[in-house]
């Protein structure tokens, strides 16, 4: 079945254009019907980030879910991983996050979690798509079975306590003895997004001296010049405050990047390398390896091989990383972009939890972040995008020859990945290898060929 709505991370598009109240209502009805279980009152939990359009989509989803007989628990602005955690913790039948992640405020999206707190499979998403296009009038709840909706208090505290308990050496209320974050000056950038309350408070409660930016959402400024995709403000603040580390989350806080005390950006590959190294020493890895996508740097793969670990690669998307982790028993994986999944603690990428695990490594090694988080030298990597009109991507027959020539030129010492984005109408071209000039030439040749093909 052709997927009309779901991409690599839920449904996403421009608010009130692609993501309309009508669509949100139908998603609520369709998902609600599929996830009704037994005769008891089924429940769905809904969180959102700070986009203006979140109010509109939230209300439409509530109408959809209640119209098919599901009760709705509203969380307000909360990180995506918090919604996943609370879905399972509160014994809900479905979890929903209203967010377009790192996209600008004009966009929004709908992410769905099953009762096990994992993102839905392709098959279940296909079932939902089929119902979205169906006439559901005869399947609506009778008047006495219409669902109720209410806002839930105290959810921020629940997630903060959950996050603190994952810090093995934390000092949280009743938590483990040992190292906390006392003495660390941390700049945290919440992207004016979903974690603007919980992330600073969790770090402060663990003892850190916390400096905040990106904690004043107004409905329009999510991800604007702040957050994990725009680290300039964080770098400047780390220098200004002489902080030990800077932590930048994205709009829904499921990804994180770090800035060390020298102002250098640390991406997801370096974060995973630091955590994997510590977990290997502690015997905490369930398998001797890490799962990452085809976009992770070859230098990361070489480093892991050097310390006796494998790198299992997947297609781009944290859902595919998680599927491989679950299927083969890995407990650490993620993406270069900053999604880090630690299945001992959560069912999806969690920027705050990943940052806390890194801070544990920093405290245990008693070394500056610049040393802890720079374990390998990344190979030169070039990433360029070619935009095309929706539905007008070039065929494989047109671009395959130039891609094959590029792979031949890079040889065994390099990699080439050409793929359509799952969230916007662009084709991403990534090349890497030991010779930067050669990588540039190969990527430029492919970009030019693609640009001609879509013109």
CATH topology group of the largest domain: Alpha-D-Glucose-1,6-Bisphosphate, Chain A, domain 3
CATH-assigned homologous superfamily of the largest domain: Alpha-D-Glucose-1,6-Bisphosphate, subunit A, domain 3
The stretches of 5 or more residues where confidence is low (pLDDT under 50) are 169-178
**Mind summarizing the main beta sheet?**
7 strands, mixed
Q: Helix tally? A: 14
The mean pLDDT is 93
Care to count the β-strands? 19
State the domain count. Answer: 4
* Overall geometry: globular
Approximately how much beta-strand content do the residues carry?
15-25%
Helix content: 25-40%
Radius of gyration computed on alpha carbons: 22 Å
Strand order in the sheet with the most strands: 1-2-6-5-3-4-7
Describe the structure.
The chain has 455 residues and is of the alpha/beta class. It has four domains: 6-154, Alpha-D-Glucose-1,6-Bisphosphate, Chain A, domain 3; 183-253, 3-Layer(aba) Sandwich (Alpha-D-Glucose-1,6-Bisphosphate, Chain A, domain 3), CATH 3.40.120.10; 265-378, Alpha-D-Glucose-1,6-Bisphosphate, subunit A, domain 3 (Alpha-D-Glucose-1,6-Bisphosphate, Chain A, domain 3), CATH 3.40.120; 381-454, 2-Layer Sandwich (TATA-Binding Protein). It is 37% helix and 21% strand. It is built from 14 helices and 19 strands. It has helices spanning 21-34, 53-67, 80-89, 122-132, 155-165, 198-205, 232-241, 268-282, 298-306, 318-328, 351-365, 369-372, 396-410, 436-454, and strands at 6-7, 10-14, 43-48, 71-77, 94-98, 107-113, 149-151, 185-189, 209-213, 245-249, 256-260, 265-266, 289-293, 310-314, 332-334, 340-342, 381-387, 414-420, 426-433. Strands 1-2-6-5-3-4-7 form a seven-stranded mixed β-sheet, with helices on both faces. The chain has a five-stranded mixed β-sheet with strand order 9-8-10-11-12, sandwiched between helices. β5 (94-98) and β6 (107-113) form a beta hairpin. α1 (21-34) packs across α4 (122-132), α5 (155-165) crosses α6 and α13 (396-410) runs antiparallel to α14 (436-454). Residues 169-178 have low confidence and may be disordered.
């Amino acid at each position: 079945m052709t997927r009309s709505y779901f991409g690599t991370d839920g449904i996403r598009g421009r608010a009130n254009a692609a993501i309309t109240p009508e669509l949100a209502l139908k998603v609520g009805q369709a998902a609600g019907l599929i996830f009704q279980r037994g005769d008891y009152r089924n429940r769905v939990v809904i969180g959102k980030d700070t986009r203006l359009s979140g109010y509109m989509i939230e209300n439409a989803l509530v109408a959809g879910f209640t119209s098919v007989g599901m009760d709705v628990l509203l969380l307000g602005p909360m990180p995506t991983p918090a919604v996943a955690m609370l879905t399972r913790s509160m014994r809900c039948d479905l979890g929903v996050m209203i967010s377009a992640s790192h996209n600008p405020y004009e966009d929004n999206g709908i992410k769905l979690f099953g009762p096990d707190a994992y993102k839905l499979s392709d098959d279940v998403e296909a079932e939902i798509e089929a119902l979205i296009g169906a006439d559901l009038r005869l399947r609506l709840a009778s008047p006495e079975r219409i669902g109720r909706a209410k806002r839930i208090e105290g959810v921020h505290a629940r997630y903060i306590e959950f996050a603190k308990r994952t810090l093995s050496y934390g000092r949280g209320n009743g938590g483990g003895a040992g190292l906390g974050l006392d003495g660390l000056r941390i700049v945290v950038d919440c992207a004016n997004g979903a974690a603007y309350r919980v992330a600073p408070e969790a770090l402060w409660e663990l003892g850190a001296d916390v400096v905040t930016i990106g904690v004043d959402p107004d409905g329009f400024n999510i991800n604007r010049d702040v957050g994990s995709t725009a680290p300039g403000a964080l770098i400047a603040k780390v220098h200004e405050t002489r902080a030990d580390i800077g932590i930048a989350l994205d709009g829904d806080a499921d990804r994180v990047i770090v800035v060390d005390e020298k102002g250098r950006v640390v991406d997801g590959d370096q974060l995973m390398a630091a955590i994997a190294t510590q977990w290997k020493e502690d015997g905490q890895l369930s398998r001797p390896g890490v799962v990452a996508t085809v976009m992770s740097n070859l230098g990361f793969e070489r480093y892991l091989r050097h310390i006796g670990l494998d790198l299992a690669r997947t297609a781009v998307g944290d859902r595919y990383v998680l599927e491989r982790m679950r299927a083969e028993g890995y407990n650490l994986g993620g993406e270069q972009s900053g999604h880090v999944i630690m299945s001992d603690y959560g069912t999806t990428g969690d920027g705050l939890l990943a940052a806390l695990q890194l801070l544990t490594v920093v405290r245990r090694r008693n070394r500056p972040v610049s040393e802890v988080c720079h374990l390998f030298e990344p190979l030169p990597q070039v990433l360029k995008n070619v935009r095309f009109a929706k539905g007008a991507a070039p065929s494989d027959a047109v671009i395959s020859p130039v891609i094959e020539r590029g792979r031949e030129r890079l040889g065994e010492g390099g990699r080439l990945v050409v793929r359509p984005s799952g969230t916007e109408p662009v084709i991403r071209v990534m090349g890497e290898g030991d010779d930067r000039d050669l990588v540039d030439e190969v990527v430029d040749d492919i970009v030019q060929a693609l640009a001609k093909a879509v013109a």
